[in-house]
Design a protein that fits this description.
Blueprint: H1 11-30, H2 35-46, H3 57-78, H4 81-86, H5 88-112, H6 117-128, H7 132-142, H8 148-174, H9 181-216, H10 220-240, H11 245-257, H12 262-286, H13 297-320, H14 326-335, H15 342-351, H16 362-392, E1 416-420, H17 424-435, E2 440-444, H18 447-455, E3 459-462, H19 468-474, E4 479-484, H20 489-502, E5 508-510, H21 518-523, E6 528-529, H22 537-548, H23 591-595, E7 604-607, E8 613-615, H24 623-631, E9 635-638, E10 646-648, E11 653-655
Parallel strand pairs: 1-2, 1-4, 2-3, 4-5, 5-6
Antiparallel strand pairs: 7-8, 7-9, 9-10, 10-11
Helix pairs in contact: 1-2, 2-12, 2-16, 3-10, 3-11, 3-12, 5-6, 5-8, 5-13, 6-8, 6-15, 7-8, 8-9, 8-14, 8-15, 9-10, 9-11, 10-11, 12-19, 13-14, 13-16, 14-16, 17-22
Length: about 675
């Protein structure tokens, strides 16, 4: 405990770090430069070699390590096993060629100048690695994650991160320590493979049910703690086997990506990841001693130019051999033309065995830091240069990857309505919109409600609509209207502010669960406010359709939220009544007509075996009859207003209802 008026020693440096990083980062954003460059510069200024405002470097570097692990965890969570399999040729083909070729070129150059080949290989390892953190930030800022150039760069980066395991195991051999030799390396690689396999298997078995239980608590705090524990816990377990903690965190994220709670997890952990990642970039800048290199500035520039030249050539060759086209290869090559953060991990391991960058000792260490910081800062400009050169190169169609075309799976790409929350009002509104053939996306934190919304045929994103990660998963570009109908007026006002900031041109309709604060909601730029007392489904639905400029259809159709239990008259002359069972209508109109985008049915019939809704024989599609013939479901009942009969296609007889007998007209 601190005495009154006593200031903790750590508080001043932390405040200096956060304030300077925030101010410099904001300045760089204003001049349209990624804030990472500002964080690096803040580290240079605050470090012990310049202003010296941060004395406890160890604490900063510990926080930076957490930042790297959380960063790789979020990358893994956005990069599912399925998506990884679609770019496996970039990982296994391009990544292998790039790492091996870069190491070989650097080793060859050092051998030409009379250096020991071991120094060349070690330096080649350092140069071969690119900055996963920087490149992914630049790709995301350009919106190129799903483009071929982004996939090529990310695939190569993933292989580099995997190659670190082998590089760390080879460093003792390069340092002259031959104990164990090839057998020791093989044993270490085998152990690493077993541990990675065990982690993946256990995580895939344990993580989904664990996250499901935690999500049911509907507590963001508990969910966030669970996600952080998983990320750091898996990283710790893998580190015990001599595997990079960052790679372990990446694997944990990849396992999480297979869970339906991945978007929710990302939305919760992202603010924490951003803070620690900023600390990481500051810590890299702190390593630079500008004074020590004042007389060697020419060497720094020469080394930086050499690194760019080598990495552009080798990365271009690695991607080009995959026959993806010169523009893609050129864009990816310049994105990868820097030295990565994990090179410092190798440099520290190498120093324990008497190895240093270029064999220059302490000067080599500082040269590595200077070139790394310089090229990290220049990455956005290098990426822009690569893009400009790529546009000058001739386009050529690239062959599809073995696992597909490399694009995301195609789904319903129509414009849609976003419902924030799932409750009684949203459920009825969702049915009304489905009647009118309007796709709906639902966001909800509750797993049970999410499963219910999915059962009704809606797209569901698990998480709160106020979180950036959740909105990214929603694909806001396709959202044409937002409805907030399950929140109080105060909550709706806050949510409307957030949504308007993300999608300023999308109208927002609010139906608060309590008395509406109309001035406050309109101040949040809400398009329409529907009073609770008059917010039955029909008026709210009409409001939505009016804003979408769509003519509504009658809701007097099958209700997909209500079970239909037709009971035939016991005296009916039909031998197939045993096929009749309670069913949930699959749609509010002809299921097949709606799938085809048409509404030209005349009358509707409901299959009493499965709930399929089909159009009658007088309709152009005759889908009720076709369904009965295809699936062997003989009986369908009329769902027209006032009609209670059913028809058996096999016996060609009318079945009257036991509740309200009626003749077929």
């Amino acid at each position: 405990m601190l005495a009154a008026g006593e200031t903790p020693e750590f508080l001043g440096p932390i405040v200096a770090l956060l304030v300077s990083a925030g101010l410099i980062g904001a300045l760089f954003v204003r001049i349209r430069v990624v804030p990472i460059v500002g964080f690096l510069l803040a580290g240079v200024l605050l470090g012990p070699h310049q202003l010296g405002l941060i004395a406890d470097e160890a604490a900063v570097h510990d926080a930076a390590d957490i930042g790297v692990m959380l960063l790789l965890f979020t990358i893994g969570a956005e990069f599912s096993v399925e998506r990884l399999s679609r770019i496996k040729r970039f990982v296994l083909g391009g990544g292998t060629v790039q790492v091996v070729l870069t190491t070989a070129v650097v080793t060859g150059l050092f051998s030409l100048f009379g250096q020991d080949w071991r120094i060349g290989v070690f330096t080649g390892f350092l140069v071969a690695l690119s900055s996963t953190a920087i490149v992914l930030k630049v790709i995301a800022a350009k919106g190129a994650t799903q483009e071929p150039v982004g996939q090529a760069a990310v695939g190569t980066l993933i292989f580099q991160d995997l190659a670190i395991i082998v590089m760390v195991l080879l460093i003792p051999v390069l340092g002259g320590e031959s104990e164990g030799g090839a057998l020791g390396i093989a044993r270490a690689l085998g152990t690493a493979a077993l541990v990675l396999t065990a982690v993946l298997v256990v995580a895939r078995k344990v993580m989904p049910p664990l996250l499901e239980r935690v999500a049911r608590l509907c507590s963001p705090e508990v969910f966030l703690l669970t996600i952080v524990a998983i990320a750091l816990g898996v990283a710790y377990v893998t580190s015990l086997a001599g595997i990079s903690e960052a790679l372990g965190a990446f694997l944990a994220g990849m396992v999480l990506s297979e869970s339906r709670h991945s978007a929710h997890a990302l939305s919760e952990i992202m603010p924490l990841q951003m803070i620690f990642s900023a600390v990481f970039f500051v810590s890299i800048g702190m390593l630079l001693d500008v004074g020590a290199l004042a007389d060697l500035w020419w060497l720094v520039l020469l080394a930086a130019a050499a690194v760019v030249a080598i990495k552009v050539v080798t990365a271009y060759t690695a991607v080009a051999v995959l026959r993806v086209g010169a523009p893609t290869a050129m864009g990816a090559a310049f994105l990868l033309a820097q030295i990565g953060e994990f090179s410092f991990v190798l440099q520290q391991v190498g120093s324990d065995y008497g190895l240093s960058p270029a064999g220059l000792g302490a000067e080599g260490d500082q040269l590595l830091v200077a070139v790394t910081v310089l090229l990290m800062a220049a990455t956005p400009a290098l990426g822009a240069l690569g893009g400009a050169l790529a546009r000058r190169l001739p386009e050529r169609a690239a062959p599809a990857p073995a696992g597909g075309d490399g694009s995301e799976p195609s789904g319903d790409t129509r414009d849609r309505v976003l419902l924030s929350g799932w409750g009684p009002v949203s459920k009825n509104l969702g049915h009304y919109l489905k009647v009118n053939d309007i796709p709906v996306t639902v966001t909800t934190l509750n797993p049970d409600l999410a499963a219910e919304a999915e059962a009704f045929g809606h797209t569901v994103v698990r998480g709160e609509a106020s979180k950036a990660g959740v909105l990214h998963e929603v694909d806001m570009e396709r959202v044409k209207l937002i409805v907030i109908a399950e929140n109080s007026a105060e909550e709706a006002t806050h949510l409307a502010h957030v949504l308007h900031g993300v999608a300023p041109g999308v109208p927002i309709v609010v139906r608060p669960t309590d008395a509406p604060d109309v001035p406050g909601l309109y101040e949040a730029e809400v398009e329409r406010v529907v009073d609770t007392h008059r917010a039955v489904t029909e008026p709210l639905g009409r409001t939505v359709l009016d804003l979408l400029k769509i003519d509504h259809v009658d809701m007097g159709r099958p209700n997909p939220t209500a079970v239909d239990a037709f009971r035939p008259d016991p005296d009916t002359d039909c031998a197939h009544t045993e096929t009749i069972r309670p069913v949930l209508p699959k749609s509010a109109g002809c299921t097949e007509c709606l799938r085809q985008g048409r509404r030209d049915w005349i009358h509707l019939r409901l299959c009493t075996s499965c709930g399929f809704v089909g159009c009658c024989d007088d309709s152009p599609g005759r889908h009720a009859d076709l369904h009965a013939d295809r699936f062997g479901h003989p009986i369908a009942r009329s769902v027209e207003p006032g009609e209670t009969w059913a028809w058996c296609y096999l016996d060609a007889v009318v079945l009257a209802s036991a509740d309200t007998p009626a003749e077929r007209p």
